[in-house]
Amino acid sequence: MGDLKREKKLQQFRRSRMNWEVFFRHEGDISQPRETKPS
């Protein structure tokens, strides 16, 4: 049961990651990840 849950989570993560990559590519700054937060 746990494996099934983990698999579902992995699929969701992969999907969200793909969406992020598409978003970044659309923005045109995939080389500059916005994850960098000002310290």
Question: What does this 3D model show about the protein?
Answer:
The chain is mainly α and 39 residues long. The protein has one domain. The chain contains 1 helix and no strands. It has one helix at 2-27. The radius of gyration is 14 Å and the shape is elongated.
Topology:
Layout: H1 2-27
Key features of this structure:
67% helix; elongated; single chain; 39 residues
User: What proportion of the residues is helical, as a percent range?
Assistant: 55-70%
Count up the domains: 1
Q: How many strands, what sense, and barrel or not for the largest sheet?
A: none
The number of helices is 1
Give the C-alpha Rg: 14 Å
In short:
The chain has 39 residues and is mainly alpha-helical. The chain has one helix at 2-27.
